[in-house]
Amino acid sequence: MAGTKIIAGLIAALLAGGCSSGPRPIVVGSKNFTEQLVLGEILAQQLERRLGAKVERKLNLGGTLLAHQALVNGEIDMYPEYTGTALTAVLKMPVSSDASRVLSDVRDSYEKRWRLEWLAPFGFNNSFVMVIGGEEARRGKLRTLSEAARYKTDWVMGMGYEFLQRPDGFAGMVKSYGLQIKGQVKTMDLGLLYRALEQRQVDMIAASATDGMLSVLDVTVLQDDRHYFPPYEAAPVVRAGSLAAHPGMRETLNELAGKLTDKAMQKLNYQVDGKHRPLADVAREFLDAR
Questions:
Q1: Other CB atoms within 10 A of residue 196 CB
Q2: Within a 10 A sphere around the Cβ of 67, how many other Cβ atoms?
Q3: How far is CA 5 from CA 1, 8, 11, in A?
């Protein structure tokens, strides 16, 4: 009889513990660079605010394939991803410059293969961009890459190692625009590119459209008027099971659709990278201002 009471007591304690722990938290992940951390924190705070949900953060997971695998394995419920990255790095499909087609192909493939849903994009496109000094842009009245190609024949180029080697990078861009280069391309760490441009060691660099430095320097982003670069629209990618388990999650996350322009994302990135402000504060201020 005593043994029976002890067992019953243990079962009751276990049941009580299970009840007190509450529902499983929603787990938000991200990759391991500033923009991803900002977007991950925005997603987490949005869910906490609008759903009153308990949210666990697994930010800074690593590169694309690590974050994707964590999502497929159910270790996280969502993370922000880019359409062009999903198309080429995850799905191994050919590069395309048609933004709506890329989003459609990625959505269909993710749903069929892994039951993962791409929600509405945030609104910005973190594609590659070519950047020149503001003074030179004003002097030559340069707005597009086509105009830059006609303007002079001795562009000194600076870029990261990856852009030089990518199939959608340097070689194709030069061929597409007939851009004429002086000497060898200067490759360097991405963090040094803007300094090299400011110091006139180079006069055109390959950058990302949402780099924080673009919001504070006197530089000009040249329009890709021939649409050479593929789209990299950012959007939340969420497990279908997670959406089903949390009523209102889809609508809550879709409230962020179209709320971030390239310039807005630049400013958020600079707040973290340039001003070294806490991630949570930057995300909270963005959501407060919406």
A1: 16
A2: 27
A3: 6, 5, 10
Q: What is the pTM of this model?
A: 0.86
CA atoms within 13 A on the CB side of 182: 9
Asked if 161 and 190 count as a contact pair (C-beta separation under 8 A), the reply is no
Instruction: Quickly name the fold that domain 2-125+232-289 has.
Output: D-Maltodextrin-Binding Protein; domain 2 (3.40.190)
C-alpha of 102 from chain center:
16
pLDDT digits (tens, 9 = 90+) for 142-190: 999 999 999 999 999 999 998 898 878 899 999 999 999 999 999 998 8
Indicate the fold that domain 128-222 takes in CATH: D-Maltodextrin-Binding Protein; domain 2 (3.40.190)
Please give the Cα distance from 105 to 145 (Å, whole number): 28
Q: Per the structure block, which two tokens stand in for 224?
A: 């890709």
